[in-house]
Amino acid sequence: MERAEIHELSAAYALDALEGDELEAFEEHLARCAECRENVATFQRVAAELAYDVDAPTPPPALRDRILDQAAAERPKVVQLPRRRWAFPVAATAAVAAGIAALALAFWAADLSQQVDELQADQHRANEALIALTDPSASLFALEGANGVLVVDEESGEGKLVISGLESAPAEKTYEAWVIEGETATAAGLFTGGDDQTVVPLNVPVPEGAIVAVTVEQAGGVEQPTQTPFITSEEAT
Amino acid sequence: MARGLAHLSDEALVALVARADEDALAELYDRFGRVAYGLALRIVRDPALAEDAVQEGFLAVWRSSARFVAERAKASTWILTLIHRRAVDLVRREQPRRAEPLEEVPPPSGDDTEEEAWLRLRRTRVQEALKKLPDKQREALELAYYGGFTQSELADRLGEPLGTIKSRMFAGLASLRELLAEEDYEEERWKEPRSTS
Predict the structure, then answer these.
(1) Could you tell me if A47 and A14 are in contact, meaning their C-beta atoms sit under 8 angstroms apart?
(2) Helices B75-94 and B47-68 sit at what angle, rounded to 10 degrees?
């Protein structure tokens, strides 16, 4: 009884109609109840649609400046990625982002009544991709030959390829990633693609000055690349 | 301004904001500032307070963007939720006349026709869906969302038991979800032949 009632509060919560003790109690419940988190997410999405039923006069231009000034003033709190690295990767990141956006849209359209479990595999990949992109200790490097980025953890040198819309490897073939330093190529992992988002954790670190490349190889992989890479990254710095 | 961010998804922009990218915040503001301000104004009914709500909301976006990743949400939902929360907090603190008609709303300026058209489309879509709800459900949703009333305040104001109000909000949002999802589906079908041509 009480349980059913508290579930019902996910609607009030999404409308910001809870206050004080009720709000606290529900948030505590929310931390333990996946079903309610699901409902809240859905209801917040619906509630946000209500935001569009308003007259939308243009806000005063000074408001934009105030927000950006204030944000800039608070900036030291957050880790800033060296700007220069974005000069090129942004274009590549856009493709990854487009893939993520497409996924997000698919969730919305495929709709809310659908079982979440079915979506979770896709969601998981999209999340992984986003997490890789937002990790503040990571550097991003552009890829040539595919939509995506190479993400390298600045401290550990651990690398990941995040690729959007990579077709499945041909039958009997595999994609193989390589970390290439000078003349030396080290096998860094096999993958097959075919998902909207492909996240490939590399099993060797990416040192400074190295690049990461991908070739198509015989299923099972090879020890040294036999083909010309079709994806190459910028040099890691 | 040199960086073209217009082609990035909202979610990608939030990812950049999480890396303290001010241009990305500016782009998000350019996408949602107007609807955010309109929403805040409808709730707080005072331009200066509405600006405060929008400012606090976007700064919340700036500060907590790293946490967005972990949540299962669209960036637009997340941003508008933050704006809504700030506006509701303000209106509760200030207690002006709530849920009364706003005296004057400056007419939307007609200089950005594409944005105008988009906003009008979104608005019509929600209005159509709201119209199909039972009156009492619609009333509960509107008073809560635009009026900033808590469920207890709503129960008092409408003279109904709290339990009734809770169920009404739940049923209202659930039906609205169905109505909006249904429409998405129709739109999808309608678009398909055009995109393949």
Answers:
(1) yes
(2) 140
Adjacent-strand bridge partners of A147: A164
Q: What is the residue extent of each domain of chain B? A: 1-96, 112-197
CATH number of B1-96: 1.10.1740.10
**pTM confidence score:** 0.61
Lowest average pLDDT, out of A153-157, B43-47, B119-123, goes to A153-157
Q: Which residues of A touch B145 (CB under 8 A)?
A: 15-16, 47, 50
As to burial, measured by CB atoms within 10 angstroms (0-12 exposed, 13-18 middle, 19+ buried), residue B81 is buried
| Interatomic CA distance for residues B71 and A109, integer angstroms | 19
pLDDT band at A153 (very low <50, low <70, confident <90, very high): confident
**Domain at B112-197, CATH class:** mainly alpha
Residue of B nearest to A46 (CA): B177
Residue of chain B nearest A50, judged by CA positions: B126
Would you call A233 an interface residue with chain B, using a CB distance cutoff of 8 Å?
no
Instruction: Give the Cα separation of A204 and A183 in Å (integer).
Output: 16
**H helix or E strand, kind and range, residue B195:** helix B162-196
